[in-house]
């Protein structure tokens, strides 16, 4: 009897690098999405941070990036190790089921039995070893047939994240911390978030999914058969000269739907979704309050300053300044302030209003100010 | 017996256009002082507003401007009617006694018995007819030998202005509202300002002085004999080919001292200073809170937007935005905010902190950031 290869040897990371990150306008733009920024002060972009975190798991030849055609050059500049074979370009955004599903279909066709993990290009994670331990467990659970999510033990009643309600421990070899998932819940209000945290049954949804590619495709097909058919047609043509023609025909007609709705929620409802609680620090840096928090390192009244060559003079001020202009920025007596200074747009708000930035972007779209989006 | 000419026919306006207006940084700069800005939305600079207010009093041939050499071109561009004869250029700033005293000495030499009024180039006044009535009274009181100040009936316990404490009504023909002055007091704290306003005996010091030139020079000489000697030496040479040489020799050595200390306070202490209460609206627009107040027109929760081509998108925000860059400025949930956006410097503060802007300018000087001053 031949021993099966280590599940991690069958593992492939997928990085969907698509979202602009509207709540980080005017830093994030259509042509400079969130994943191309250094929001942590690490000295490199979030995309590069993501790559560096994933490469040790299965090697840099086993990381696929799904991104828009417009971002190809920027992505390749960030990731010189990225193999051509592993670049999947979207002609237009079709949401996460199409993006992750296409990667799954291509990889399953190339390598039946592959286990894939989907990791956002623009999250912040600290604790590489803990991250790896969590993913190893997740891969084991995926190998056992589960669709696997990663949950983060809440450190505060955050209202900017979705939550995962856990059910019972699962007995999965190699995944001692796996639990079944009761349900996914959307971003709560503060009182609800406090109740979640107090209960001990809720984890932050880190937006990572690990599964056997065939299982993932099966679930997509159960929810959206036409979408699956399109993905399989694309995958059949992908490594052939027909790719361009089939993409042009099929991709624009794929249903735009988040993988949360096609896979995560229905599978959780059937009790077949597992979650591995991650012990590492995680943040989706969804808004400027998030960035300020990361930089304050728990210290209140601090002013975080980002941006090369930033010139900031602050008196009795706290919050975050991002300077991309080299201008002198003077702050006097403004607390929890958010000042984002770019060559063609300036945002002034407060941490408490950071979630409303998306509404401004929507208003700018409506008013025809697309030059600054 | 020949009737003496109407005192107003002997009147000459003097506009010292010198101060940068540090509390309005980064709008006001060494090379773009406060008087060269439109802070009221009138469509013209404060200097031009000042000219237009004074020209009806004695004609545009009887307005003298004292300004720095560096501002000559800008001043003349603003005031095409300004006669060459009426431009007094300072080689370097020597404070208000020297500036106003030199104007007085030159004018007295040219036209003995002249009555002069000194009016800041960068204040905001509404109510041209009331202003004229006040100045007519002031000129009558000056003709009677008084040094005359203009006071404004306080509409609120302002802490940004100096106050004039009145004493008793004076019986001056042509100046029925003249009162003697008990004393000048510096900017008070709020409690003191409230007591001042409640007492009914205090007026805001509008920083305008009207006097016979010979009386003014006499008072300068009583306080600072050397300074007066220098001014007379300058005036003797002024309309001669010796002007340049004498200016180079004398001007840099003149004592730097405000006219408040050489004239206003000592004369008030002797009970020889008159004040005319002005009924017009006045503001020295000393800081951004002042500008915001002027634009809010008494309405709270308003956002004043200044600057040609300003693009501002505001949500739940109030205060003032001055935009000199054409950038899109988005404000979300910031109240009583002050955002001053210029090509090389950005200020973010609140109305309550507006007086602290000068401290930032001082800090920038100390830190060697003179490029933005």
From TrEMBL, chains A, B:
Q: Which SUPFAM superfamilies match?
A: Guanosine diphospho-D-mannose pyrophosphorylase/mannose-6-phosphate isomerase linker domain, Nucleotide-diphospho-sugar transferases
Show which residues constitute the signal peptide: none
Which Pfam families is this protein grouped with?
Answer: ManC_GMP_beta-helix, NTP_transferase
Keyword annotations of the record: Nucleotidyltransferase, Transferase
Which GO terms label this protein's molecular function in UniProt?
nucleotidyltransferase activity
> Which InterPro entries does the record cross-reference, listed alphabetically?
GMPP_N, ManC/GMP-like_b-helix, Mannose-6P_isomerase_type2, NTP_transferase_dom, Nucleotide-diphossugar_trans
Residue span(s) of domain Nucleotidyl transferase: 14-297
Domain MannoseP isomerase/GMP-like beta-helix, by residue range, is 312-364
Q: Which PANTHER family match?
A: MANNOSE-1-PHOSPHATE GUANYLYLTRANSFERASE (PTHR46390)
The protein's name in its UniProt record: Mannose-1-phosphate guanylyltransferase
Q: Which organism is it from?
A: Cryobacterium glucosi
Q: What is the lineage of its organism?
A: Bacteria, Bacillati, Actinomycetota, Actinomycetes, Micrococcales
């Amino acid at each position: 009897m031949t021993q099966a290869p280590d599940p991690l040897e069958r593992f492939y990371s997928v990085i969907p690098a698509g979202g602009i990150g509207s709540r980080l306008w005017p830093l994030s733009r259509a042509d400079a999405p969130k994943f191309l920024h250094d929001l942590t002060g690490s000295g490199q972009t979030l995309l590069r941070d993501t790559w560096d975190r994933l490469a040790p798991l299965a090697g840099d030849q086993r990381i696929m990036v799904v991104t828009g055609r417009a971002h190809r050059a920027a992505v390749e500049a960030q990731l010189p190790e990225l193999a051509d074979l592993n670049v999947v370009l979207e002609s237009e955004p079709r949401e996460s089921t199409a993006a992750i599903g296409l990667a799954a279909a291509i990889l399953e066709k190339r390598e039946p039995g592959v286990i894939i993990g989907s990791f956002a290009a623009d999250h912040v994670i600290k604790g590489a070893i803990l991250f790896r331990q969590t993913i190893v467990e997740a891969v084991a659970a995926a190998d056992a047939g589960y669709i696997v999510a990663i949950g983060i033990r809440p450190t505060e009643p955050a209202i900017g994240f979705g939550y995962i309600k856990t059910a019972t421990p699962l007995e999965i070899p190699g995944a001692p911390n796996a639990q079944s998932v009761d349900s996914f819940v959307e971003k709560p209000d503060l009182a609800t978030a406090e109740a979640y945290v107090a209960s001990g049954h809720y984890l932050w949804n880190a937006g990572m999914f690990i599964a056997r590619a065939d299982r993932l495709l099966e679930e997509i097909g159960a929810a959206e058969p036409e979408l699956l058919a399109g993905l399989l047609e694309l995958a059949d043509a992908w490594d052939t000269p027909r790719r361009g023609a089939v993409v042009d025909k099929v991709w624009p007609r794929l249903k735009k739907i988040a993988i949360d709705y096609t896979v995560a929620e229905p599978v959780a409802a059937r009790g077949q979704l597992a979650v591995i609680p991650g012990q590492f620090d995680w943040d989706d840096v969804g808004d400027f309050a998030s960035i300020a928090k990361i930089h304050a390192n728990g210290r209140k009244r601090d002013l975080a300053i980002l941006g090369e060559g930033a010139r900031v003079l602050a008196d009795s001020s706290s919050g975050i300044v991002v300077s991309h202009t080299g201008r002198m920025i003077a702050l006097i007596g403004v607390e929890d302030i958010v000042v984002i200074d770019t060559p063609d747009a300036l945002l002034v708000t407060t941490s408490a209003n950071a979630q409303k930035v998306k509404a401004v972007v929507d208003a700018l779209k409506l008013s025809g100010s697309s030059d600054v989006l």
